[in-house]
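[job 0417] fold request received: Protein kinase domain-containing protein
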Amino acid sequence: CRPCSLIAAAVEDEGGAADRSHVVWLLVVDEGEEALCQHLRAFSALGAVRADFCNEYGVSAEPFCIGGSAALYTVSSYRRRSSLSAELAAKVKVLECSEDFSKVESEALLLRMAQGHPNIIRLHGQFLCSAGEPEEGAESQVGEQGAGGSARKYVSPLPMAQPYHVLVTDLCPEGDLDDRVTAKGPYSEAKGLQLIGVLLSALTHVHNIGLVHRDVKSQKVLLGAGGRPLLADFGSAARLSDSEAMKGIAGTLGYAA
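[job 0417] inference complete; emitting C-alpha coordinates
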Protein backbone atom coordinates (compact mmCIF):
# COMPACT_ATOMS: atom_id res chain seq x y z
CA CYS A 1 0.00 0.00 0.00
CA ARG A 2 1.45 3.38 -0.99
CA PRO A 3 1.79 5.99 1.77
CA CYS A 4 -0.77 8.78 1.94
CA SER A 5 -0.11 12.50 2.40
CA LEU A 6 -2.63 14.52 4.37
CA ILE A 7 -3.27 18.25 4.57
CA ALA A 8 -6.12 20.42 5.80
CA ALA A 9 -7.10 23.69 4.11
CA ALA A 10 -9.79 26.28 4.71
CA VAL A 11 -11.68 27.77 1.76
CA GLU A 12 -13.81 30.88 2.06
CA ASP A 13 -17.27 30.97 0.57
CA GLU A 14 -17.87 33.54 -2.19
CA GLY A 15 -21.09 34.83 -0.65
CA GLY A 16 -21.50 38.20 1.00
CA ALA A 17 -20.19 39.09 4.44
CA ALA A 18 -23.41 37.95 6.10
CA ASP A 19 -23.30 34.39 4.77
CA ARG A 20 -19.52 33.92 4.63
CA SER A 21 -18.44 30.51 5.89
CA HIS A 22 -15.40 28.28 5.88
CA VAL A 23 -15.17 24.73 4.63
CA VAL A 24 -12.32 22.54 5.85
CA TRP A 25 -11.00 20.09 3.27
CA LEU A 26 -8.96 16.99 4.08
CA LEU A 27 -6.80 16.09 1.10
CA VAL A 28 -5.63 12.47 0.83
CA VAL A 29 -3.06 11.69 -1.86
CA ASP A 30 -1.46 8.29 -2.39
CA GLU A 31 0.31 9.09 -5.67
CA GLY A 32 3.57 10.55 -4.37
CA GLU A 33 5.06 13.98 -3.69
CA GLU A 34 4.51 15.43 -7.18
CA ALA A 35 0.80 14.58 -7.13
CA LEU A 36 0.50 16.17 -3.69
CA CYS A 37 2.15 19.36 -5.00
CA GLN A 38 -0.26 19.51 -7.94
CA HIS A 39 -3.27 19.18 -5.65
CA LEU A 40 -1.92 21.82 -3.27
CA ARG A 41 -1.38 24.27 -6.13
CA ALA A 42 -4.95 23.60 -7.30
CA PHE A 43 -6.26 24.35 -3.81
CA SER A 44 -4.19 27.54 -3.73
CA ALA A 45 -5.76 28.63 -7.02
CA LEU A 46 -9.18 28.16 -5.41
CA GLY A 47 -8.26 30.51 -2.57
CA ALA A 48 -7.43 27.92 0.08
CA VAL A 49 -5.85 29.30 3.25
CA ARG A 50 -2.91 26.96 3.74
CA ALA A 51 -0.79 26.50 6.85
CA ASP A 52 2.32 24.96 5.26
CA PHE A 53 4.13 28.10 4.06
CA CYS A 54 7.42 27.09 5.71
CA ASN A 55 7.31 23.72 3.95
CA GLU A 56 6.59 25.29 0.57
CA TYR A 57 8.87 28.34 0.43
CA GLY A 58 12.15 29.75 1.62
CA VAL A 59 12.02 33.48 2.34
CA SER A 60 14.66 36.13 1.66
CA ALA A 61 16.41 37.18 4.86
CA GLU A 62 15.42 40.83 4.30
CA PRO A 63 12.32 42.38 2.69
CA PHE A 64 12.76 44.26 -0.58
CA CYS A 65 9.96 46.69 0.29
CA ILE A 66 8.30 47.79 3.53
CA GLY A 67 4.90 49.49 3.36
CA GLY A 68 2.59 50.97 5.93
CA SER A 69 1.00 47.67 6.95
CA ALA A 70 2.99 44.90 5.26
CA ALA A 71 6.44 43.91 4.02
CA LEU A 72 7.36 42.30 0.69
CA TYR A 73 9.84 39.43 0.55
CA THR A 74 11.26 37.33 -2.25
CA VAL A 75 10.39 33.65 -1.87
CA SER A 76 11.52 30.54 -3.70
CA SER A 77 9.91 27.14 -3.72
CA TYR A 78 11.79 24.32 -2.02
CA ARG A 79 10.25 22.00 -4.60
CA ARG A 80 11.83 23.88 -7.55
CA ARG A 81 15.36 24.51 -6.32
CA SER A 82 16.98 24.59 -9.74
CA SER A 83 14.64 27.13 -11.31
CA LEU A 84 15.07 30.86 -10.79
CA SER A 85 11.65 31.34 -12.37
CA ALA A 86 10.27 29.94 -9.11
CA GLU A 87 11.12 33.23 -7.40
CA LEU A 88 7.90 34.93 -6.33
CA ALA A 89 6.81 37.81 -4.11
CA ALA A 90 5.31 37.34 -0.65
CA LYS A 91 3.28 40.09 1.01
CA VAL A 92 3.62 39.48 4.75
CA LYS A 93 1.34 41.13 7.28
CA VAL A 94 1.50 40.58 11.03
CA LEU A 95 -1.97 39.88 12.45
CA GLU A 96 -2.66 41.82 15.62
CA CYS A 97 -6.39 41.06 15.80
CA SER A 98 -9.08 39.02 14.07
CA GLU A 99 -10.10 42.07 12.04
CA ASP A 100 -6.64 42.11 10.44
CA PHE A 101 -7.14 38.55 9.21
CA SER A 102 -10.58 39.38 7.81
CA LYS A 103 -9.07 42.23 5.78
CA VAL A 104 -6.18 40.26 4.27
CA GLU A 105 -8.37 37.24 3.64
CA SER A 106 -10.83 39.47 1.80
CA GLU A 107 -7.99 40.90 -0.30
CA ALA A 108 -6.87 37.39 -1.26
CA LEU A 109 -10.42 36.31 -2.09
CA LEU A 110 -11.09 39.30 -4.34
CA LEU A 111 -7.73 38.92 -6.09
CA ARG A 112 -8.52 35.26 -6.68
CA MET A 113 -11.89 36.23 -8.18
CA ALA A 114 -10.11 38.69 -10.50
CA GLN A 115 -7.77 36.06 -11.93
CA GLY A 116 -7.99 35.20 -15.61
CA HIS A 117 -6.73 38.41 -17.21
CA PRO A 118 -3.13 38.74 -18.49
CA ASN A 119 -2.75 42.21 -16.94
CA ILE A 120 -3.80 41.31 -13.40
CA ILE A 121 -1.14 40.09 -10.97
CA ARG A 122 -1.22 36.32 -10.60
CA LEU A 123 -2.10 34.81 -7.22
CA HIS A 124 -0.08 31.74 -6.22
CA GLY A 125 -1.55 31.19 -2.76
CA GLN A 126 -2.24 32.51 0.71
CA PHE A 127 -1.02 31.18 4.04
CA LEU A 128 -1.82 31.68 7.71
CA CYS A 129 1.31 31.17 9.80
CA SER A 130 2.00 30.85 13.50
CA ALA A 131 4.58 32.97 15.29
CA GLY A 132 8.02 31.41 15.35
CA GLU A 133 11.76 31.88 15.26
CA PRO A 134 13.96 30.23 12.60
CA GLU A 135 15.55 27.09 13.92
CA GLU A 136 19.32 26.99 14.16
CA GLY A 137 20.69 25.97 10.80
CA ALA A 138 17.39 26.65 9.03
CA GLU A 139 18.99 29.24 6.74
CA SER A 140 19.60 27.74 3.31
CA GLN A 141 20.44 28.48 -0.31
CA VAL A 142 17.53 28.13 -2.72
CA GLY A 143 18.25 28.58 -6.43
CA GLU A 144 21.62 29.23 -8.02
CA GLN A 145 21.57 33.01 -7.76
CA GLY A 146 19.40 35.92 -6.79
CA ALA A 147 18.73 39.35 -8.20
CA GLY A 148 21.78 40.93 -9.80
CA GLY A 149 23.57 37.58 -10.06
CA SER A 150 24.43 37.32 -6.35
CA ALA A 151 23.51 34.39 -4.12
CA ARG A 152 20.37 34.97 -2.10
CA LYS A 153 19.91 33.57 1.40
CA TYR A 154 16.55 32.26 2.54
CA VAL A 155 15.18 31.52 5.98
CA SER A 156 12.16 29.55 7.13
CA PRO A 157 10.09 30.34 9.08
CA LEU A 158 10.09 34.13 9.32
CA PRO A 159 11.08 35.40 12.79
CA MET A 160 7.69 36.80 13.78
CA ALA A 161 6.50 37.30 17.35
CA GLN A 162 2.83 37.16 16.26
CA PRO A 163 0.81 35.16 13.74
CA TYR A 164 1.08 36.46 10.19
CA HIS A 165 -0.64 36.16 6.82
CA VAL A 166 1.24 35.65 3.56
CA LEU A 167 -0.06 36.44 0.08
CA VAL A 168 2.16 34.96 -2.66
CA THR A 169 2.05 36.54 -6.13
CA ASP A 170 4.29 36.99 -9.17
CA LEU A 171 7.57 38.78 -8.51
CA CYS A 172 7.97 42.00 -10.51
CA PRO A 173 11.64 43.01 -10.13
CA GLU A 174 11.22 46.04 -12.41
CA GLY A 175 9.06 47.69 -9.74
CA ASP A 176 5.93 49.69 -10.41
CA LEU A 177 4.84 52.22 -13.00
CA ASP A 178 5.72 55.12 -10.72
CA ASP A 179 9.30 53.81 -10.36
CA ARG A 180 9.63 53.46 -14.13
CA VAL A 181 8.40 56.99 -14.91
CA THR A 182 10.61 58.47 -12.19
CA ALA A 183 13.69 56.67 -13.51
CA LYS A 184 13.15 56.98 -17.27
CA GLY A 185 10.65 59.77 -17.77
CA PRO A 186 7.18 59.65 -19.34
CA TYR A 187 6.14 57.15 -21.99
CA SER A 188 5.78 58.19 -25.60
CA GLU A 189 2.23 58.94 -26.73
CA ALA A 190 1.98 55.61 -28.55
CA LYS A 191 3.31 53.60 -25.58
CA GLY A 192 1.11 55.58 -23.20
CA LEU A 193 -2.01 54.79 -25.22
CA GLN A 194 -1.05 51.11 -25.30
CA LEU A 195 -0.52 51.11 -21.54
CA ILE A 196 -3.86 52.79 -20.87
CA GLY A 197 -5.57 50.33 -23.22
CA VAL A 198 -4.39 47.20 -21.40
CA LEU A 199 -5.16 48.69 -17.98
CA LEU A 200 -8.67 49.63 -19.10
CA SER A 201 -9.06 46.06 -20.33
CA ALA A 202 -8.01 44.76 -16.90
CA LEU A 203 -10.42 47.12 -15.13
CA THR A 204 -13.23 46.12 -17.50
CA HIS A 205 -12.59 42.49 -16.56
CA VAL A 206 -12.71 43.40 -12.86
CA HIS A 207 -15.97 45.33 -13.28
CA ASN A 208 -17.56 42.59 -15.39
CA ILE A 209 -17.20 40.10 -12.52
CA GLY A 210 -18.79 42.55 -10.08
CA LEU A 211 -15.70 44.02 -8.40
CA VAL A 212 -14.19 47.50 -8.13
CA HIS A 213 -10.50 48.09 -7.38
CA ARG A 214 -11.02 51.53 -5.74
CA ASP A 215 -7.34 52.52 -5.55
CA VAL A 216 -5.96 52.62 -9.09
CA LYS A 217 -2.71 54.61 -9.28
CA SER A 218 0.77 54.24 -10.74
CA GLN A 219 2.12 52.53 -7.59
CA LYS A 220 -0.51 49.78 -7.96
CA VAL A 221 0.58 48.93 -11.51
CA LEU A 222 3.55 46.55 -11.36
CA LEU A 223 5.81 45.79 -14.32
CA GLY A 224 6.18 42.11 -15.08
CA ALA A 225 8.31 40.28 -17.63
CA GLY A 226 9.10 42.48 -20.62
CA GLY A 227 7.55 45.48 -18.88
CA ARG A 228 4.03 44.03 -19.02
CA PRO A 229 1.77 46.15 -16.76
CA LEU A 230 -0.03 44.21 -14.03
CA LEU A 231 -2.83 45.65 -11.91
CA ALA A 232 -2.06 44.70 -8.30
CA ASP A 233 -2.99 45.25 -4.64
CA PHE A 234 -6.68 44.51 -4.15
CA GLY A 235 -6.58 45.59 -0.50
CA SER A 236 -9.15 48.35 -1.11
CA ALA A 237 -11.26 46.37 -3.58
CA ALA A 238 -14.89 45.50 -2.93
CA ARG A 239 -17.84 43.72 -4.48
CA LEU A 240 -20.35 46.02 -6.11
CA SER A 241 -23.04 43.98 -4.37
CA ASP A 242 -21.53 44.68 -0.92
CA SER A 243 -23.51 47.79 0.01
CA GLU A 244 -21.72 48.30 3.33
CA ALA A 245 -18.24 48.17 1.78
CA MET A 246 -19.30 50.44 -1.07
CA LYS A 247 -20.40 53.10 1.43
CA GLY A 248 -16.87 53.30 2.84
CA ILE A 249 -14.21 55.75 1.73
CA ALA A 250 -11.39 54.19 -0.31
CA GLY A 251 -8.57 55.33 -2.54
CA THR A 252 -5.63 57.71 -2.22
CA LEU A 253 -5.82 61.48 -1.91
CA GLY A 254 -4.78 63.00 -5.22
CA TYR A 255 -5.97 59.97 -7.20
CA ALA A 256 -9.49 59.35 -5.91
CA ALA A 257 -12.39 60.91 -7.81
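[job 0417] notes: Residues 1-20, 81-85, 135-150 have pLDDT under 50 and may be disordered. The chain has two domains: 51-171, 173-256.
[job 0417] exit 0
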